[in-house]
Write a structure and sequence with these properties.
This protein is an alpha/beta fold and 393 residues long. Helix content is 41%, strand content 15%. The N and C termini lie far apart (55 Å). The protein folds into two domains: 119 residues, Response regulator (Rossmann fold, 3-Layer(aba) Sandwich); 238 residues, 3-Layer(aba) Sandwich (Rossmann fold), CATH 3.40.50.300. The longest helix is centred in the first third of the chain and has 16 residues. It is built from 16 helices and 13 strands.
């Protein structure tokens, strides 16, 4: 890979870090020199500082994107300025990722692995699985309960603990944030599968589901909310059947909605992870959901209540929640506070950044519980009696 930075000491330090991680490294001190070296021998990845003499990092990106030989080379921008305007300028110039100084070596290595995996995919595709994948659906009756954060971290934990194929799907089709949590660009989305709904095949899934450095694959929601209108419950039925034939675990992050598409997801769930926070409004809505679950003929055994921010000093206690909902709390998640916010803002899940954090350890225990659950067999269908469906107005 190629490091383009006018700070020679920093370039050499980064070079030593990357060489020790097994990479071959070349250095360039200016944007012009970096451009010439990239054109002469295109590297696998370019790390470029924004503030370069002459041609700056933005200009270098724009030049690289204009030529076929360098157009697809991933570019990681380095800068001491971390405001959003600088990041947008970098992405508009063609950068693939952005790292703000100062940073830890392990974060640099993680970003590099993520970019290389995104471009080249995993080195050895895992074999197809003989059993039908376990569909794990995360649902919350209101926004802001931490559902997406838990779903993202759990998907990674499932892969780490089981070594199996895991697909993480963003089913909040209008305002999904799974890609933000993983720092993934919205280049391919569920719409790319919907467009080929009658001709789904494993190769297409490999092209559309974005590989993440953690080893999971991610199916992102549409880039714009209005694009999601074309997705129907029938599309979802086909997609879930398709994905369950390719992956051992399908983790789905749902929108907090009772519209037909979300009900279709719930109907096909093997495990429903119902996330609630210790507040009156969330409990009221969760109680209504549990009543609805009876009408939908969802089994109580497949609904697992996750009490998030269980260590809140002003919230309702777990015992009172169980009494109110008449349902056992399966998992009690502590509030991770600033470390969790920091991990989301950087696009590095806490389970990767701080695997020993109490929040991460709770996620690992949740993953181990789900891994031990009975697995559906190929061709195994849901209850023969069709669930009652609610049609949206």
């Amino acid at each position: 890979m190629l490091i383009v930075d006018d700070d020679r000491a920093l370039s050499e330090l980064l070079g030593r870090i990357l060489v020790s991680a097994g990479y071959e490294v070349a250095l360039a001190g200016t944007g012009e020199d970096g451009y010439r070296k990239a054109m002469r021998e295109p590297p696998d990845l370019i790390i470029a500082d924004v503030m370069l003499p002459g041609m700056d990092g933005y200009g270098l990106c724009r030049q690289l994107r204009q030529h076929a030989a360098t157009r697809l080379i991933p570019v990681l921008m380095l800068t001491a300025r971390g405001n959003i305007a600088d990041k947008i300028a970098g992405f508009e110039a063609g950068a693939d990722d952005y790292l703000t100084k100062p940073f830890q070596p392990q974060e640099l290595i993680y970003r590099i692995k993520s970019l290389l995996t995104r471009v080249h995919g995993p080195s050895e595709p895992p074999p197809m699985v003989p059993t039908r994948g376990l569909i794990i659906v995360f649902f919350g009756t209101k926004g802001g309960v931490g559902k997406t954060t838990i779903a993202v971290n759990l998907a990674i934990a499932l892969h780490q603990r089981s070594g199996k194929r895991v697909a993480l799907c963003d089913a909040d089709f209008s305002f999904g944030d799974v890609g933000v949590h993983l720092n993934l660009p919205t280049v391919r989305t569920v719409l790319d599968l919907v467009d080929h709904i009658g001709e789904l095949e494993p190769l297409l899934a490999d092209q559309v589901l974005i590989p993440h450095a953690s080893g999971i694959r991610v199916l992102l929601s549409p880039f714009r909310p209005e694009e999601a209108e074309v997705i129907t419950p029938e599309h979802i039925q086909h997609l879930l059947q398709f994905l369950s034939e390719l992956y051992d675990y399908i983790v789905i992050d749902c929108a907090p909605s009772y519209e037909d598409r979300m009900l279709e997801v719930l109907e096909h769930a093997d495990e429903i992870m119902l996330v609630v926070t210790p507040e009156v409004g969330a409990l009221k809505n969760t109680s209504l959901f549990l009543d609805l679950a009876v009408k939908l003929r969802l089994s109580p055994e497949q609904i697992h209540i996750i009490l998030n921010r269980a260590n809140s000093n002003v919230g309702i206690g777990a015992d009172e929640i169980e009494h109110t909902l008449r349902h056992q709390v399966a998992f009690r998640m502590i509030s991770a506070g600033r470390p969790l916010v920091f991990s989301v803002n950087r696009g590095i899940p806490l389970i990767i950044d701080q695997p020993d954090h109490p929040f991460s350890q709770q996620i690992f225990r949740m993953a181990e519980y789900l891994i031990a659950r009975p697995r559906p067999q190929p061709g195994e269908s849901e209850d023969a009696s069709a669930p009652l469906r609610m049609k949206s107005a």
